[in-house]
């Protein structure tokens, strides 16, 4: 048995005969904020539904706080859910929406008042306790949805793209809010997003999924700085990813000598890592854009398109001009697959 607070073990999830998540293993530590990140359709919501008990796994086990929850009904798992659609009761006030679950539990009125007031304060809604959902902004409704889950003191809080309906500014505010609430309450949270910057900003650890499979698990630093697979590198903004074999770099049409020996299947470079103005490769500038501190180029070369960036103070190249460049070994990122 692992010491994980939430442990998914060889979890297989299917709709009918269509297996969308095969044999997923994931351990989550108590108090962690985990981001499930990945492209649309990769199985994020499906995984959340299984943790919550809204769908039965085909095989595998789910443990929460040491208890086998695999066959436990959803309402006995101690899990809170915040989904993209807030599903607030339109005829109830903020206070009554937040109190709803506690009333079902038949807690005494004084206790309910105390817990709800504290919960609304935590999300900054204590002054809007008498409003109805229709009288509140999207962000306020989102916060109410969060408060409604928090007051139930769940062991685990699952949030499925809870910020996707918000505009950019509100989203930033809610991100900070979530992080603060999480640190204050210490509740273990699993947060689904397909926005890498959101995952990088919020999570203690990121679980990057692709086609139902975990590509990589790590801290935001690890995933951003050292993605291990081609998919992960691509997802985190490495624009130049090439297949290599020994000392050759393989383009779509042609292979060229790389200038050093590599044992990896792929090598990747961020645009800023490409040497410009020196080197054994050449191409034609097809795009040139000023981007504040640097200038970005799209270069068409014999091995395909290369994205490069140079400091804005360096001499610049015009579209149509020939440019020489190089792939430096010391700034390359090796990828196993
Ligand atoms: N109720 C369902 N019946 C059949 N197939 C489903 C059902 N729900 C989801 N799927 C399929 O399962 C796969 C995973 O879907 P899921 O909703 O988990 O993706 P997701 O990662 O949450 O994507 P998104 O970012 O778009 O929300 C998809 O291929 C989807 O078409
Ligand atoms: Mg989803």
Notable features of this structure?
single chain; 337 residues; Rossmann fold; OB fold (Dihydrolipoamide Acetyltransferase, E2P); 2 domains; six-stranded mixed β-sheet; four-stranded antiparallel β-sheet; 25% helix; binds adenosine-5'-triphosphate; binds magnesium ion
Description of the molecule:
- With 337 residues, this protein is α+β, with helices and mostly antiparallel strands.
- It has two domains: 6-229, Rossmann fold, CATH 3.40.50; 238-335, Nucleic acid-binding proteins (OB fold (Dihydrolipoamide Acetyltransferase, E2P)).
- Helix content is 25%, strand content 37%.
- It is built from eight helices and 18 strands.
- The strands form four sheets. Strands 6-7-8-3-9-10 form a six-stranded mixed β-sheet, with helices on both faces.
- Helix 2 (94-104) crosses helix 3 (109-122) and helix 3 packs across helix 4 (138-150).
- The longest helix has 18 residues, at 168-185.
- The mean pLDDT is 92.
- The structure holds adenosine-5'-triphosphate and magnesium ion.
- Magnesium ion binds next to helix 1.
Question: Please, what is the average pLDDT?
Answer: 92
Q: What is the CATH topology classification name of the largest domain?
A: Rossmann fold
Structural category is alpha+beta
Query: Could you give the order of the helices and strands?
Result: EEEHEEEHHHEHEHEEHHEEEEEEEE
What ligands can be seen in this structure? Answer: adenosine-5'-triphosphate, magnesium ion
Strand content: 35-45%
Q: In CATH, what is the homologous superfamily of the largest domain?
A: P-loop containing nucleotide triphosphate hydrolases
Helical fraction: 10-25%
Q: How many individual β-strands? A: 18
């Amino acid at each position: 048995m692992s010491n994980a607070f939430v442990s998914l073990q060889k979890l297989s999830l299917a709709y009918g005969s269509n297996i969308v998540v095969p044999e997923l293993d994931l351990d989550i530590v108590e108090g962690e904020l985990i981001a499930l990140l990945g492209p649309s359709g990769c199985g994020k919501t499906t995984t959340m539904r299984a943790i919550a008990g809204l769908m039965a796994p085909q095989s595998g086990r789910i443990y929460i706080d040491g208890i086998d929850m695999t066959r436990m009904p959803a309402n006995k798992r101690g899990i809170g859910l915040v989904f993209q659609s807030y599903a607030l009761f339109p005829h109830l006030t903020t206070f009554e929406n937040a109190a709803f679950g506690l009333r079902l539990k038949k807690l005494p009125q004084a206790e309910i008042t105390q817990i709800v007031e504290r919960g609304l304060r935590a999300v900054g809604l204590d002054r809007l306790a008498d409003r109805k959902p229709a009288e509140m902004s999207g962000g306020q409704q989102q916060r109410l949805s969060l408060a409604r889950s928090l007051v139930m003191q769940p062991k685990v809080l699952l949030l499925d793209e809870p910020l996707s309906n918000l505009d950019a500014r509100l989203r930033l505010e809610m991100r900070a809010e979530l992080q603060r609430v999480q640190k204050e309450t210490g509740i273990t949270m699993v947060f689904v997003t397909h926005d890498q910057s959101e995952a990088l900003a919020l999570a203690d650890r990121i679980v990057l999924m692709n086609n139902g499979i975990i590509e990589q698990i790590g801290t935001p630093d690890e995933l951003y700085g050292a993605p291990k697979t081609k998919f992960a590198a691509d997802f985190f903004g490495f624009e130049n990813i090439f297949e290599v074999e020994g000392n050759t770099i393989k383009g779509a049409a042609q292979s060229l000598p790389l200038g050093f020996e590599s044992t990896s299947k792929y090598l990747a470079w961020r645009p800023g890592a490409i040497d410009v103005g020196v080197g054994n490769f050449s191409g034609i500038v097809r795009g040139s854009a000023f981007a504040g501190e640097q200038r970005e180029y799209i270069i068409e070369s014999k091995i395909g398109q290369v994205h490069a960036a140079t400091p804005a103070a360096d001499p610049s190249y015009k579209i149509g001009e020939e440019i020489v460049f190089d792939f430096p070994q010391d700034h390359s990122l090796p990828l196993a697959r």
